Amino acid sequence: MTHDESHYIHDIEQLTARFGPVGEASLKKEADHIHPMYRPLIEASPFAIVATSGADGLDASPRGDPAGFVKIQDEHTLLLPERRGNNRIDSLRNLLEDPRIAMLFLIPGLGETLRVNGTARISVAPDLLQQLAMQGKQPQCVIVIHVERVYFQCARAIQRSGLWNTAPNRRDLNVPTAGMILAGLTQDGIDAEKYDRELPQRQRDTLY
């Protein structure tokens, strides 16, 4: 399918004309620090998406732990533990090149999400590693985030998606398993059945 160039938006004037003015509440909900009204949302969140940018492109990746896993050091600083994973360290590589970071906090059952933008540095300070230990295991490092913008996102996207509705059975979704994906990408170089069979125990053993 092809479209005429006139069907594409090329400038801010075209864009704002299509969407109209920003509502007053949407402007007033933004803060340049962790406002007391936003603190409970961070403390209640067990899951966040972290976005970074570097020479190799953009990255958005999930982070999760028990609720409150991102610690509020002060109204301008967040501490994000970096747990063990696949060692791709895409987000960390990006932060060394470009300190800008964005986070989206989700809370199961809640429609509103919380967006945080700022800059970040990577720390291996012993006191921070110990403070953010989980099940006796320290994180690999800690992402120290300087907060610049914080605001909540309305619930429409969650409502439209039905994200917090009863989760369907994986079989009903008709989506491939991790093993099947790897087998398909490697022309069966990875044994899908073996990978999927061993994955649950491997995840339990390497969670922290």
UniProtKB/TrEMBL annotation:
<dbReference type="InterPro" id="IPR024029">
    <property type="entry name" value="Pyridox_Oxase_FMN-dep"/>
</dbReference>
<dbReference type="InterPro" id="IPR012349">
    <property type="entry name" value="Split_barrel_FMN-bd"/>
</dbReference>
<protein>
    <submittedName>
        <fullName>Pyridoxamine 5'-phosphate oxidase</fullName>
    </submittedName>
</protein>
<feature type="domain" description="Pyridoxamine 5'-phosphate oxidase N-terminal">
    <location>
        <begin position="36"/>
        <end position="154"/>
    </location>
</feature>
<dbReference type="Pfam" id="PF01243">
    <property type="entry name" value="PNPOx_N"/>
</dbReference>
<dbReference type="InterPro" id="IPR011576">
    <property type="entry name" value="Pyridox_Oxase_N"/>
</dbReference>
